[in-house]
Specification:
9-stranded mixed beta sheet; alpha/beta; elongated; TIM Barrel; single chain; binds pyridoxal-5'-phosphate; 28% helix; 2 domains; Lyase, Ornithine Decarboxylase, Chain A, domain 1
């Protein structure tokens, strides 16, 4: 007997790089088939999150913002609101950004302290605001009417909450309209350039000592880094204007939102957090001077590339000369890709029934989902080794905004989601259930049976 502690073979390597990702995916997929987590009869669809890759990503985020700045990196819960995922991110040192009573409850269930939660919905009810202020959750006010509502709630109240105003720097949109929140007419925040707003904001801060933060979120996927950094710069400039005109350091913190775009075209993680921080330094040097506390709200970039969704090919056919593979993975787990394929293309990998990568000459194929509408295609005319019934397909980079938020069309059941850790020797995989598969009984219960 020795008292020598064996090192945990599953300790994540913070320096995991994109080079490891394809190998790790195949390893995880093969292990999932071996263990029956994927099974043509019992479990034809499941999603996986490489937890080591997630840990490496969060470590990279923390490294990218070095001192003297006090930074809270709050994960945007809408990107993946599974409670065990949120809990894991909390253990990795993140806070949590929420935007609905449901996400708020999920964040609390995941163990986040109220002081590390940020409440950002544009439609907060009186009850939501009162609860957030009571618990000391940070609140970003979206509009003038919400400010008046908070005024009422603050009467005679003490709160630990950090309270800020979301501004819309109106710097313009990115390549995806629905993801662009800093256009001239976006529904979010108080616009900076519209007549009188900047002065009205200065006055609002002057009259309210408890108003101490500014928030902006320029957009998600599709926004260039310089556009995002421009929006942050306009927000920092407003903070300095307020502090200058009031002659006191009233604005103590800036919440710069999330939105780092994800590369859906390959395994490379690009842009990375350091590149964004470099653009922030160039556009808004005061942000990182140490004069302000900083909050970030990244979602997609934290998880997307560490997840994939795997489903079996049920049938194949040829129609009008086009090869079609009909699989279990469609609109219920890849909603945006199916409804807006130009904006949200996904990489797909082809595997045999053991999970091993399929080789073979690429053939243009439609990869279809199971739903009963013709548009349920996750890829059109995609060159892949010719798929056969019983093969597996994996939809890549789906760790955020995909299987975690399924779409209820056709009463298709929500698949199980598993976390995976790969042992340091690179051979064994340990799985943890993050969400069990929905059963027919669950479905009946939620549909009023
Ligand atoms: C969606 C959203 C985020 C996260 O955006 P990502 O593109 O996932 O990083 C952050 N903040 C706010 C206010 C959001 O609406």
């Amino acid at each position: 007997m020795t008292n020598h502690q064996p090192t945990d073979p599953y300790l994540p390597d913070p320096h995991l790089t994109s080079l490891h990702r394809p190998e790790r995916r195949e390893l995880i997929l093969r292990a999932a088939v071996r263990e029956g987590l994927l099974d043509p009869v019992a479990a034809p669809l499941a999603a996986f999150l490489d937890l080591d890759a997630v840990a490496a990503t969060v470590a990279a985020l923390h490294r990218a913002f070095p001192g003297p700045v006090e930074v809270l990196h709050a994960f945007a819960a809408k990107a993946n609101s599974l409670v065990p995922v949120l809990a894991r991110l909390r253990e990795l040192g993140m806070g949590c950004e929420v935007a609905s009573p449901g996400e708020f409850a999920q964040a609390l269930a995941a163990g986040f302290e109220p002081g590390r939660i940020i409440y950002d919905s544009p439609a907060k009810t009186r009850a939501e605001l009162a609860r957030a202020l009571e618990l000391g959750v940070a609140v970003n006010i979206d509009n003038w009417q919400e400010l008046a509502r908070v005024d009422e709630l603050m009467m005679g109240r003490q709160t630990e909450s950090r309270i800020g105003v979301r501004v819309n720097p109106q710097v313009g949109g990115g390549s995806i309209g629905a993801m662009s929140t800093a256009t001239a007419t976006s529904k979010f925040g108080i616009t900076l350039a519209d007549e009188g707003n900047a002065e009205r904001l200065v006055a609002a801060f002057r009259d309210r000592p408890w108003l101490q933060w500014l928030h902006c979120h320029v957009g998600s996927q599709g926004c260039p880094l310089d556009l995002m950094a421009d929006g942050v710069a306009a927000t920092v400039a407003l903070a300095e204007k307020i502090n200058g005109e009031l002659g006191r350091r009233q604005v103590v913190g800036l919440d710069i939102g999330g939105g780092l775009p994800v590369n859906f075209a390959g395994d490379l993680v690009t842009p990375g957090y350091p590149e964004y921080v470099e653009r922030l330094r160039a556009h808004a040097p005061a942000l990182l001077s140490g004069d302000f506390q900083v909050v970030t709200e990244f979602g997609r970039s934290v998880l997307a590339k560490s997840g994939f969704t795997a489903g079996y090919v049920e049938y194949t056919k040829k129609s009008g000369g086009r090869a079609i593979a009909i699989t279990s993975a469609g609109v219920q787990v890849a909603t945006r890709t199916v409804f807006a394929p130009e904006a949200w293309p996904l990489r797909i990998s082809a595997h045999d029934s053991t999970g091993a990568a399929k080789h073979g000459a690429p053939v243009e194929q439609d990869i279809a989902g199971p739903a009963c509408f013709a548009g349920d295609l996750v890829a059109k005319a995609r060159p892949l080794p010719l798929l056969e019934a019983g093969d597996l397909v994996a939809l890549l980079d789906t760790g955020a905004y995909y299987s975690s938020t399924p779409f209820g069309y056709n009463s298709l059941l929500e698949p199980a989601v598993y976390g995976a850790e790969v042992a340091a020797d690179g051979t064994t995989v340990r799985f943890a259930l993050l969400r069990r598969a929905e059963t027919v009984e669950d479905l009946l219960a939620r549909t009023g049976a």
